[in-house]
Design goal:
The complex is a heterodimer of chains A (250) and B (728).
Chain A (H helix, E strand, L loop, with lengths): L21 E6 L8 H9 L6 H6 L8 E3 L2 E2 L6 E2 L3 E3 L18 E3 L6 E3 L9 H5 L6 E2 L26 E2 L5 H13 L12 H5 L5 E5 L6 H7 L18 E4 L5
Parallel strand pairs in A: 1-11
Antiparallel strand pairs in A: 1-10, 2-5, 3-4, 6-7, 8-9
Chain B lengths: L6 H18 L5 H4 L18 E6 L8 E7 L2 E7 L12 H4 L2 H4 L9 E2 L8 E2 L2 H13 L6 E5 L4 H14 L5 E2 L2 H6 L1 H12 L5 E3 L6 E5 L10 H12 L9 E5 L12 E3 L6 H16 L5 H4 L3 H8 L3 H12 L3 E5 L9 H14 L9 E3 L15 H12 L5 E5 L3 H4 L6 H5 L4 E4 L6 H4 L3 E2 L10 E4 L8 E5 L12 H12 L1 H6 L5 H10 L14 H11 L1 E3 L31 E7 L11 H4 L14 E3 L1 H6 L6 E6 L4 E8 L7 E6 L36 E11 L21
The chains are: A alpha+beta (250), B alpha/beta (728).
């Protein structure tokens, strides 16, 4: 039987070969769907709002969204646990090999899926190939009238139309913390910084940190208790960096 | 005005920023305290490429969460929670995050203007003339002809106006807002008073409970102190080595975002909340043995179950759950905004008496009072607001000052606020944004945005500690605005007499120093200082002062179970086949509609963005031949609005629901002419505590033949219709 490793596809990285450095654990049982993470992400990452019409066409540019599904019928209807969905920073990302411009590349340093905006030519192949549907295409130069641009985060590129965008795990915050630690001659401590979504989350449903070090909170959460949580669509061999839990392993 | 920003422009703008901010310095007394310098003379605390962080207090609602705002070369970049603040422990909600879209909103009021009513534009006056106008208004009218209508934040302005009122005899300020109306704060505190004989706002320790029963309370959305309740909810839900995962039951006719998190959602007929609570109480008492307390004895569980449209077995199972665990019951939301809202609050509070959780971990407390507070001071009930409207109507009010609230939009039409304005000689608005009330004013004297201003806000509920949350400017004022406190102080000086002696301050900051430094002598403070200047500086640096003493009050449980509660179904006003549930939009709140990123946040339950919708059960819609996006006319005895249909699978077939927050006719480009305002449908009916019976209406719907595509995040493919209830 042919296994994945026999195929020798260079883009397919197998577990063990590389371990994602940064990762997340999301507890869906305590996520209330309040949208604080969505707002925080938009403010941190200079994400444009697209307006009523374009958002109706599915062009809203949220880098993170809260999915909720229904089960059953009234009166036995149940809202399933909210599912914050963003780029899973796959270890073996389906979006990467299809980019003709090498705009979606894998970073060796952070083990993240990068999106290089000035390489992106807007083929949207990556979005088509993403099983999580978390890539958003910037369809227009969305207007942000003066003085709204005063709020822009200078650490994050302001994108123009025609490029693909997605969650970066707040890479600007990762770099800032790494630079600071380096200048102080130490390693980045667990919990020293976090992503905008995790920082805002009122119920602390999102935990961010190193998943390749055993002494971090994320690692503990991933490997604690009966259930290790689940990774979405991991049967596709994408090796996501985000672990979803329903009730903290209980 | 509007222009597109490319990356290159952005870099240019970033370079220009420093020079721009230097130009903007120097308007208003705030500049005495805050300056932003150009690159060449960067102050020592600021350096190129480095951010500066300021602690302040969020003004998007009255909860008083602590913020730390990241600024960069004089511009506010990002809002974060203040990790040391006892109320929110570093967390923020979506509205707090989007407060920067208020600060840098393209539609702010930029200058003081004198105008005719109904006009949005007017003649720009200079601040001296504006202050003279305020002074004349104070001086040339009898004190009892002058009224202040304030929002629920910020407290320092309320204290200033209260001081002014106490020594000059003008009417005491009324505080009101749509949020306080939907929260029914008066009902909650009245119920506590009736049952415990104590005043105060009940606080429910959700975090340490094992079972939470909520009767309509939307405590994970906007209710009272959403961040602290959300933190409690997460704590309750999480299993640890020492406790099991807590369970949560919600009783309501329309599944709210809070109800969506419930383990069991009980869809009862609106108006039967009191009956159901009493029935559960009786069943719990029977399970626990002994005689049934008097308060529960008048209700027959089987009868209550039938009235509520739920099965008796379901109530028995819930009673079992409640009786055998560390349980807490919370009344709130639409359950209180009904004709028998007070009875609902009392019945639900009594459930807690049954399991004896008063003053215990995981139970009911009365909230700690804030440091400079001697008794709980709640916002006005709708009936108290109505009293002001009546006075205005009769011509007894000659001058009305409005700050921090948009009554023309927020108060239901049926209360007649807008009409009453025409009998008020002079209306002076301090609005930061050109809202509907500013449109009807003679003067608009814009206050700074909350992030540009000084102040403090009392934490009224949500933490064990007494907290006074401090606000300071994080950026220099962007426009030619001026702090309302400064305007009033200056005008009082000009008016002379008792006005001048009531506010003997150079400016707002001096007033704040006096108020805040009164706390210096208190023990167990979060910090101490040797002199008032140092105390004030530390107060700003930490974003407030709190006393490290658990000051929650244990309710007096003594006679609760021997009281009487009317075991009745609520009365509903008007004709129509549907119960009507208006609810506060969890993402927009009362004043979020002008912030574009709040508009584009999907509603937590429906995922709708940018507009108003009416939620109808898919079965009902099928019978009425209604589809998604079809615009219907919703008609009540008080008015009618047109809204598109959203087939909502988690609402009773006899109930429809509409979110509050949209339907503005002014308030800037992102809010104007968008959606509809369900407050137009609300009649003038109050409950026994004086809160509006906003959920006590019956309405009917008519087709209009129009459709409006509703923008929503969720996929439309296969949603509802024939495949109702399938997972997508």
């Amino acid at each position: 039987m042919t296994t994945l490793s026999d195929l020798k596809i260079s883009e397919v990285k197998l577990e063990g070969e590389h371990v994602g450095k940064w990762g997340m654990v999301i507890d869906q049982d305590i996520c209330t769907g309040c949208q604080a993470c969505v707002a925080a992400c938009s403010m941190e990452n200079n994400i444009p709002f697209v307006g009523e019409e374009d958002s109706g066409y599915g062009r809203a540019m949220h880098w993170i969204r809260i999915e909720r599904f229904w089960e059953g019928e009234y009166p036995e209807v149940k809202m399933t646990n909210q599912q914050p969905m963003m780029c899973q920073q796959c270890g073996s990302a389906p979006c990467e090999p299809v980019c003709p411009a090498f705009a979606t590349v894998h970073s060796q340093a952070e083990q993240l899926n990068l999106q290089v905006y000035n390489r992106c030519v807007g083929t949207r192949y990556c979005a088509n190939n993403c099983p999580y549907q978390v890539r958003t295409f910037n369809w227009r130069d969305y207007q942000r009238p003066e003085p709204l641009p005063n709020q822009f985060n200078p650490d994050v590129t302001v994108r123009r139309r025609g490029v693909m965008e997605k969650c970066t795990f707040c890479i600007q915050r990762i770099h800032k913390a790494q630079d600071k630690a380096k200048s102080e001659g130490r390693e980045v401590a667990d919990g020293e910084f976090t992503t905008a979504c995790a920082q805002a989350c009122p119920s602390n449903a999102i935990t961010f940190g190193r998943i390749d070090k055993e002494d971090t909170l994320v690692y503990q959460m991933m490997h604690h208790g009966q259930s290790h949580g689940k990774k979405h669509l991991e049967e596709l061999g994408t090796l996501p960096s985000i672990t979803y839990m329903n009730g903290g392993g209980a | 005005m509007s222009e597109q920003v490319s990356r290159r422009d952005f870099l240019k703008l970033a370079g220009l920023g420093a020079a721009t901010t230097a130009v903007l310095t120097g308007c208003g007394p705030a500049s005495r305290y805050v300056t932003r310098e150009p690159y060449q003379q960067m102050p020592e605390y600021n350096s190129v490429g480095q951010s500066t962080y300021y602690a302040t207090t969020c003004r998007e609602c009255a909860a008083a969460c602590g913020l730390v705002v990241r600024t960069y070369q004089g511009r506010a970049i990002k809002v974060e929670g203040n990790a040391n603040h006892p109320l929110n422990l570093g967390k923020t909600c979506a509205r707090g995050q989007a407060t920067l879209h208020g600060l840098y909103n393209p539609d702010r009021v930029t200058d003081p203007i004198k105008k005719s009513r109904g006009d949005s534009a007017g003649e720009i006056v200079d601040w001296n003339a504006a202050i003279q106008a305020v002074a004349d208004a104070l001086k040339n009218n009898q004190p009892d002809e002058i009224a202040f209508l304030l929002g629920t934040s910020s407290d320092h302005l309320f204290d200033l106006v209260t001081d002014l009122a106490n020594s000059t005899g003008i009417n005491a300020p009324i505080r009101f807002g749509a949020m306080s109306m939907f929260e029914s704060r008066a009902t909650l505190s009245k119920a506590a008073e009736n049952l415990f004989g104590q005043t105060g706002l009940p606080w429910f320790d959700v975090g340490n409970a094992d079972v939470v029963f909520s009767f309509g309370a939307n405590f994970l959305e906007t209710w009272l102190s959403p961040l602290s309740y959300t933190r409690g909810f997460a704590q309750m839900r999480k299993a640890t080595e020492t406790k099991l995962r807590g369970r949560f039951v919600q009783f309501e006719a329309r599944m709210s975002a809070t109800g969506g998190k419930a383990d069991e959602w009980v869809s009862l007929r609106p108006g039967t909340e009191a009956l159901v609570a009493l029935a559960i109480g009786r069943l719990v008492a029977e399970i626990r043995g002994g005689s049934v307390p008097r308060i529960f004895s008048s209700v027959e569980p089987a009868d209550a179950a039938e009235q509520a449209g739920v099965k008796l077995e379901a109530l028995e199972h819930l009673a079992e759950m409640f009786a055998n665990s560390k349980a807490v019951a919370i009344p709130g939301g639409p359950a209180l905004g009904q004709s028998n809202g007070l009875a609902v609050a009392e019945a639900v509070l009594a459930l807690n008496a049954l399991v004896n959780n008063f003053g215990k971990s995981g139970g009911v407390y009365l909230s700690a009072l804030a440091p400079n507070q001697t008794e709980y001071n709640r916002p006005a009930s709708s009936q108290e607001m109505q009293a002001l409207v009546e006075k205005m109507k009769s011509g007894a009010i000659k001058v009305l000052f409005v700050h921090g609230v948009n009554p023309v939009f927020e108060i239901p039409n049926s209360l007649g606020f807008k009409d009453a304005l025409s009998n008020v000689g002079q209306v002076i608005s301090f609005a930061t944004f050109p809202d509907e009330t500013a449109l009807e004013a003679d003067y608009v004297l814009p206050d700074h945005h909350g992030l540009e201003g000084w102040g403090y806000q009392r934490v009224t509920t949500g933490t064990d500690l007494p907290v006074l949350s401090g606000a300071q400017p994080v950026v220099t004022p962007y426009y030619n605005t001026r702090s309302t406190a400064d305007v009033l102080i200056a005008a009082a000086q000009l008016a002379g007499g008792s006005f001048a002696s009531a506010l003997p301050f150079a400016d707002e900051v001096e007033f704040l120093e006096k108020k805040v430094s009164a706390l210096m002598s208190e023990s167990n403070g979060s910090f101490s200082a040797l002199d008032s200047t140092a105390f004030m500086a530390t107060f700003q640096q930490f974003g407030g002062w709190w006393k490290n003493v658990d000051s929650k009050v244990t309710p007096n449980a003594g006679s609760v179970l021997n009281k009487n509660v009317k075991a009745e179904v609520a009365e509903f006003a008007g004709e129509g086949e549907f119960f009507f549930v208006p609810f506060m939009s969890p993402t927009l709140g009362e004043a979020g509609a002008n912030k574009p990123w709040l508009q584009e946040l999907p509603d937590p339950t429906t995922t709708v963005m940018w507009t108003t919708w009416v939620e109808i059960n898919p079965e009902t819609a099928h019978e009425l031949h209604l589809e998604n996006d079809e615009v219907v006319r919703v008609i009540s005895e008080a008015g009618e609005i047109e809204v598109p249909v959203y087939l909502y699978p988690a609402i009773r077939p006899d109930t429809i629901a509409i979110p509050f927050g949209q339907g503005h006719t002014a308030y800037g480009r992102y809010a104007e002419n968008r959606g509809a305002n369900p407050a137009d449908l609300l009649g003038k009916h109050f409950n026994e505590a004086g809160d509006l019976a906003f959920a006590g209406m019956k309405v009917r719907i008519e087709k209009t033949g129009k459709t409006k595509p509703v923008s929503r995040l969720e996929s439309r493919m296969g949603v509802y219709g024939e495949e109702l209830g399938e997972e997508h």
